[in-house]
Amino acid sequence: MNKKNIATISILIFILGSFMKTKKSTKTRGLRNNNAGNIRWDSKTKWLGQTGADDKNFIIFEAPEYGIRAMARVLKSYQNRGVITMGDIVKTWAPAVENDTESYIKSVESRTGFKRDQVMFSQNYPELIAAIIHHENGAQPYAMNTIIKGVALA
């Protein structure tokens, strides 16, 4: 190889590397942290697959399935407390002090076909979680098999 070819390859590698860095930085916090539900760490709970917490105390998981598992575990804890309708689940997940809860509920209704007063059961979790992921991150990048696997881990 001559110097011109080496220089051209070096420039291409630099451009490709810059593009890949830019691409990574556009992910939302939830997707970067494998915590697509944006669950905050309470300093008491050590979640399966947790590798730490970020600067805003959002949990970081080693893989998306562990973040999805945590989402399913939270939903189960709501069920145990009597929070069972889709609307009440969303209100608890994303309280009005931090979120436009009405918009969130409408988003979940639109994505799932679930009504706000519909009782949610564990078999509804994959669809519900997919809709929550989409609302929290502006996208839902995971295959349904990934979501089902995460729910099954719960």
- The counted number of beta strands is 2
Shape: elongated
- The largest sheet has its strands arranged as 1-2
- Please give the count of helices: 7
The structure class reads mainly alpha
Sequence of secondary-structure elements: HHEEHHHHH
Spans where pLDDT lies below 50 across 5 or more residues: none
Strand content: under 5%
Helix content: 55-70%
Cα gyration radius (Å):
19 Å
The overall pLDDT, averaged over residues, is 91
Termini gap: 55 Å
Q: Biggest β-sheet: count, sense, barrel?
A: 2 strands, antiparallel
Features:
single chain; 154 residues; 56% helix
Q: What does this entry look like structurally?
A:
The chain has 154 residues and is mainly alpha-helical. It is built from 7 helices and 2 strands. The protein has helices at 3-25, 29-32, 64-80, 86-93, 101-112, 125-137, 144-153, and strands at residues 50-53, 59-61. The longest helix is centred in the N-terminal third of the chain and has 23 residues, at 3-25.
Write a brief caption for the model:
The chain has 154 residues and is mainly α. It has helices spanning 3-25, 29-32, 64-80, 86-93, 101-112, 125-137, 144-153, and strands at 50-53, 59-61.
Ordered list of secondary-structure elements with their pairings:
Blueprint: H1 3-25, H2 29-32, E1 50-53, E2 59-61, H3 64-80, H4 86-93, H5 101-112, H6 125-137, H7 144-153
Antiparallel strand pairs: 1-2
Helix pairs in contact: 3-7, 4-5, 5-6, 6-7
